[in-house]
Amino acid sequence: MTRLVLSTVLLLVTFCASSAQDKDVVEVIYTQKTLNPARGSSVKLSCDARYDFKQCGLLHVAWFQNEAELTQPRKYHTTVNETISDQRMRRRQVVTEILNLTPEDSGEFQCRAECQLEDTGMGHLIIINVQGLMI
């Protein structure tokens, strides 16, 4: 009976260890959607990156439009919030507000998280169609 219990415990520990290794180092989470904001308004894009700090190292999370990172400070306002859930896992929320929308802001947007050590995560595409006539 003792041998059976020890075998079961060893199997359970082995299963838990292999399951932990199979998880993604970084995961990007948000809802896929299409937005139709008015010209001149603003829109906020929000994503969560959950990552294993020990396997990822430093993490860079940003929003992109058509492969270009959104970095112009007069056009984009980005806030970052990070919480630690346990010794290994962290959650980083990145919210980018696109200010004074124009037709040029229409397109596909995607949040990406890049680990220093090994992995990259990407979310769904968000489509923005700016509405309104040229003045």
3D shape: elongated
In quaternary terms, these chains amount to: single chain
Q: How is the CATH topology named?
A: Immunoglobulin-like
User: What percent strand?
Assistant: 35-45%
Described by strand count, sense and barrel closure, the largest sheet is: 6 strands, mixed
What's this model, at a glance?
Helices cover 19% and strands 44% of the residues.
Q: What are the SSEs and their pairings?
A:
Blueprint: H1 2-22, E1 26-29, E2 34-35, E3 43-52, H2 53-56, E4 59-65, E5 68-69, E6 76-84, E7 89-98, E8 107-115, E9 120-122, E10 126-128
Parallel strand pairs: 2-10
Antiparallel strand pairs: 1-3, 3-7, 4-5, 4-8, 6-7, 8-9, 8-10
What do you see in this structure?
The chain has about 140 residues and is of the alpha+beta class. It has a single domain, classed as Immunoglobulins (Immunoglobulin-like, Sandwich), CATH 2.60.40.10. Helices cover about 20% and strands about 45% of the residues. The chain is built from 2 helices and 10 strands. Strands 2, 4, 5, 8, 9 and 10 form a 6-stranded mixed β-sheet that branches. Strands 1-3-7-6 form a 4-stranded antiparallel β-sheet. It is elongated and about 50 Å long. About 15% of the residues have low confidence.
